[in-house]
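User: Structure please.
Assistant: Input sequence and predicted structure:
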Amino acid sequence: METSEKSQNSANKSLIFAMQKCNQMVEKVGVSVRGNKKYMMVKDRVQLFRETFGLEFTIDSNLLFQDSNRVICETKIKDLNNNVIASGIAEELRATNKSSVNFTSAIENCQTSSIGRALASFGLMGTEYASADELQAVTRKEKILEAPVKSKTDDIPFTENDLETKWDEYCANFEIEINKTSNQQSLRELQQRNKSNIEKLKKEEPTLYAELSTAFKQRMNILMQNAEDSE
């Protein structure tokens, strides 16, 4: 038998052993996140991975995307020849509430979730593909989406001396806030919070008002379409 075949058979046996051990570990170290199901923590998957395979495989994480609203990470598990054996991708939403862990650590949490999914793809999942960390991320996302958003356009003071400049700034910020909304309700709430300023804008700067109204309608159409597609 060729050396490469022996090495592959050895790796396969190690993987089967690790998968079986992972299934057994769920009852001891698994975390109940939602319902009665138990989920493995990513740290426990990583520990089992390293105990079983040592440096035979690498865990390679990359930040694919980030902006002021969200981050996306991808993790690949590779062999020593740089062949991708498994991969996982995850997304986290940035929080505006300072008490939320994602106010400062969205990237770190995103990486953890992507590592957990990559290890699940590799075979180390336990009884559930998702990790406990990933289920906790779902809860974080739900809280962020439900939290009221303080708009940069809320309660902007206006004076006659800088009225024109303020309206330009207002409209630019409002369009940004419009495009950040994630559902029809949040868009309507944004409009309601700015009701008095919008009425002033309509009287004093009708052209800017028309442009802002168009941006609002376009965003509403997109959100309505997204809602229909998800049904």
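The longest strand covers residues 57-66.
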